[in-house]
Amino acid sequence: MSLIKSISGIRGTIGGRAGENLTPLDIVESTAAYGALLQKESSKAKVVIGRDARMSGPWVQELCIHTLRAMGIDIVDCGLSTTPTVEMAVVEHKAQGGIILTASHNPKQWNALKLLNERGEFISAAQGEEMLEIARSSDFSFADVDSIGAFEKDALAIDSHINKILELDLVQTEKIQSKKFKILVDCINSTGGLSIVPLLEKLDCKVTTLNNDLSGDFAHNPEPLPAHLKETLKEAANGHYDLGIVVDPDVDRLAFIHERGEFFGEEYTLVAVADYILERQKGAAVSNLSSSIALQDVCRKHGVDYYSSAVGEVNVVSKMKEVEAIIGGEGNGGVILPALHYGRDALAGVAIFLSYLASTGQSVSQLRSSYKDYYMVKDKMSVAEIDLDKLVQKLKEKYGHQRQDDVDGLKIYFDEGWIHLRKSNTEPIVRIYSESESESEARKLVARIKKDIAELN
């Protein structure tokens, strides 16, 4: 069973039976429920739609478009695009919502509907619950033939996105252009080639690409982690590049490789971007509970406040608005820059990172060495193996003498580091993350909690 219906939308593997895998019936039902949700707020709604390049994308997109048009909802089709581009296009077109068809870092057999509100941000938990109830009750209707929704294409959405990034005061376009950076980009056979590459070309970078077709037949596991990037790291190590860039299929996650072909660390993408911004502007920063404490170090360095949130972009954004943060994101390589929009944006992250390099004259490896090393271990277990609610309560009691945070699952702080376990929003698993100043200590923390799970579950 690989279908997840949640307040975040619908996600699953293609094929199989309706209700078990992601099928046309599931897609139509969820799209219609989302359309009905929007129609409660606006009698004449407009929705912006875009997709990554995964192979199921074209027909999934057609189903979504025609379902919404049949409900009388107007459509703006961005075609092959990125998640942050569609988020910005919602506002640009004064639409009531948006759908991005992508399963992000999941393999090619997965797809999903990411659902946006009128601000180009992910719908709230309350809206998600309402949409699920609409789907359960089939409380939606369709328009008569004279009221079918209009359709238009926006072929310039990515160009508009790039231009808005280059207009940011924080982006030092001329300095970057003067450096003529040589950059390797792994486009993972998706829309990074349509977005990251044109951005770099406008910054006068010399670009070499890997996996730059739009087949959606991903050349490797699309999650930008070192274990999945062996060929990319090998190419980056040949001494021809100042920087390597890796994105996921919908271009909201960002990872760097330094000039010697070593991984910069996806947790340090946000850290470096925040360091550059907080040097120039004072304000709070936010990341989620599963992100590295290296961001807290940067906040202390600049004398600003740090806040944490539950995992998930919508939760990070909510906390950022609450504390008026000027930078935030997630340790998986997600950078959120409110000066542009409230969404993880790899394009914005690239422009800020290059501005940092251009302004200091540092190499990527020199920049990375300026940050303290923390080691994170990311593990997981099947949901079927764990009754998480009962387990969390037992762990809270066992470690009652330790500082804890139960906003999202349970995070326990030890002298040697921290450990966080929580149910995934995107897969039927429980995630177990730990971090310490030593890799062995981080692994010991995971082993310790897994032993506890075996004994207490």
Description of the molecule:
By secondary structure, the protein is of the alpha/beta class. The protein folds into 3 domains: 3-157, Alpha-D-Glucose-1,6-Bisphosphate, subunit A, domain 3 (Alpha-D-Glucose-1,6-Bisphosphate, Chain A, domain 3); 179-369, Alpha-D-Glucose-1,6-Bisphosphate, subunit A, domain 3 (Alpha-D-Glucose-1,6-Bisphosphate, Chain A, domain 3, 3-Layer(aba) Sandwich); 375-456, Alpha-D-phosphohexomutase, C-terminal domain (TATA-Binding Protein, 2-Layer Sandwich). 38% of the residues lie in helices and 22% in strands. The strands form 4 sheets. The protein has a 7-stranded mixed sheet with strand order 1-2-6-5-3-4-7, sandwiched between helices. It has a 5-stranded antiparallel sheet with strand order 16-20-19-18-17. Strands 9-8-10-11 form a 4-stranded mixed sheet, with helices on both faces. Strand 17 (403-405) and strand 18 form a beta hairpin. Helix 7 packs parallel to helix 12. The longest helix has 18 residues, at 24-41. It is globular. The model has no long low-confidence stretch (mean pLDDT 95).
